[in-house]
Structure formats: C-alpha cells, structure tokens
Amino acid sequence: MPKILDGAAIAAAIKQEVAEEVKQLAAQGIRPGLAAVLVGNVAASEIYVRSKVQSCAELGIYSDLITPPETVTTEDMVDLIAALNDRDEIDGILIQLPLPAQVDTKALLDAVLPAKDVDGFHPVNAGRLQAGRPALAPCTPAGIIEILKRSGIPMAGQHAVVVGRSDLVGKPAAILLLYQNATVTICHSKTRDLGAITRQADILVAAIGRPGYIGPEMVKPGATIIDVGINRISTREEFDRFFAGNAKREAAFAKRGSTIVGDVHPKAFELAGAYTPVPGGVGLLTVAMLMANTVRAAKMRRGL
Ligand SMILES: NC(=O)c1ccc[n+]([C@@H]2O[C@H](COP(=O)([O-])OP(=O)(O)OC[C@H]3O[C@@H](n4cnc5c(N)ncnc54)[C@H](OP(=O)(O)O)[C@@H]3O)[C@@H](O)[C@H]2O)c1
After folding, report:
1. Which atom from ligand 1 is nearest to the alpha carbon of 191?
2. Is 6 a catalytic residue?
3. 8 A C-beta contact, residue 118 and residue 299
4. According to the model, what pLDDT value does residue 109 have?
5. What is the mean pLDDT of residues 266-288?
6. What is the pTM (predicted TM-score) of this model?
C-alpha cells in the first residue's frame, strides 16, 4: 500500500513551531504582521485569503486584509504596495493572484520590498534563491521540501523530475530539490516523450494545471509523487474518468456539484511508494510556509 503523505499533519507541526517563535518574539516586544491584498471577488481567491488570515489569527500574527475593487488600476495598486512597504508593523505583503487583466501583475510583484516579499516572487528573492543566498523562498515549493524532509523521504542522489517550469512552482521547486542534492530534470509542455522521463523519477513533482494528466503509465512503481495541481472538475464525464466507484467523492460531488483533482490520475497513486493527496497534501503546506516566511521576514528585517 502506498504511504499517504499527510499534508494536514505536517502543516500543523510547522504552524505549531511558528506559533512558538511568535511567542518568543512577543517576549521581545515584536509581533510579526502580514498584509493580505485581495482584489475583486474571485471565489477561490477569497477562500485562500480567508484561510491565510485565519492562520495568522491562530498563530498570533497580526494581519491586515485589504480589498481593493475589481476595477482598481495598476497605479492605485502600486501606491497601495508603497504604503505597505512603509508600514513598520507589516513584515510580509501577500498579493493574492490572479489579478484582474488591467493590472500589471509583474509591476506589482516588483513593487513589493524584497524584505517583505513573503511569497518569494520578487526577482531579487528569485535571484538570491538561485544564487544560493538566504532568501524568502516561494511557499509552495518550500512546502514540497518540508513534506519530503518530514516524511523521511531521501532526496540526495535521487532522480527528481519536476513537470512544470512556472516561476511560482516548477522552477523554484527544482532549485530547492537541487539544494537537497537530488538529480533534477525539469519538464514542460515542449518536452518530448514526457512519460519516458517521468518513469525515471524517484521523486515526481507534478505542477502542470491539467486534471489527472500524469497517468499510471507515466510512473515508476514505488516512486514518491508530489501532486501540486488543484483542478476543479464539474462534469459527470470528468468525475467518472477519475473517481468512478469512489463513494466518498461521489457524495461530495453530489453535494457541491464539483470536486478537486490534482495533476496526477488517482490510478497512478496506486503504483506509488508514497504520495500527496489532493486535497489534503501540498495545498495545506502553502499556508503554513507563508506563516513561516512572515516570521522569518520579521526576524530578518530586525537582524535577528
Ligand atoms: N497546492 C498549492 O498550494 C498550489 C500553489 C500554486 C499552484 N498550484 C497548482 O499547481 C498547478 C501548476 O500551477 P502553476 O502556477 O505552476 O501553473 P502554470 O504557470 O500554468 O504552469 C504550468 C506548467 O506546466 C507545464 N505544462 C502545461 N501543460 C503541459 C504538458 N502537457 N506537459 C508538460 N508540461 C506541461 C507548462 O509548460 P510551459 O512552460 O511549456 O507552458 C508550465 O511550465 C496548477 O494546478 C495550480 O492550481 C497549487
């Protein structure tokens, strides 16, 4: 039976450690603070931001939720970020993506002070990470490493195949795996014969954004599979393709009219040695690592 890598338990352990650090900082009169910027009314973004703000409250981190309207301009957003850069009680600035089409996302991410860039998206932090200097690393890739480490999955000398090369997930995940001494291959949409490469993976990271794309024929038996994908499916045909005969999922689908599937087909998990479920895997780590980064930013800004 493959081992399920329990994102909830690992995220809870990290949050507990962060809460402990927050307490120690409080004894020195320091309270880490996070500003969360949520533009418009994208339902999924609202859910993500709510869970981030709630985690702050649980851990004793100050948070400020700022909600500009859907019609906001790049200029207004840059002014807002500049004001947050200046606020001393704010250690981390989170801009929930995606932003409306009229807003220049890259300009905004560049406007965040690198020292407050708790998402690790600023080019300065991306460069520092690449150069092996202390940096705020993007939360999802950092969470992947925590899952592997805390589950006792060896990385040194292992062949890690990362499918996806986004600046948010694939690329930084590959760099972090390299620092763990894995032998890393990065694949993307132009990769020829993807299955021939993924079948070589001891550790397979799927960050593609395509429901159930990695099938059982693409997996080496016994491999560790990290499924980063979060894809909502709402048709009966799609549901049956992934979850036919799964009573628990059937009940959830009937209730909500949709469900979530990762980038890996559930049948592929059956071959794995260990895997992260969707939901309940990597996604939970992203919030935990955001909390950890906020405390880290608070300490780094004060030279602690
Ligand atoms: N768990 C979490 O907390 C979390 C956080 C962030 C993202 N996600 C999820 O992770 C997934 C990836 O997110 P992302 O932001 O990295 O997405 P993205 O920016 O759209 O990047 C997707 C990557 O997958 C590659 N790709 C697309 N189709 C492919 C194919 N047929 N074969 C091989 N590679 C292919 C793309 O290649 P090209 O570069 O060649 O186009 C690209 O590099 C999404 O499902 C997203 O919802 C989860």
Report:
1. 33
2. no
3. no
4. 96
5. 97
6. 0.97
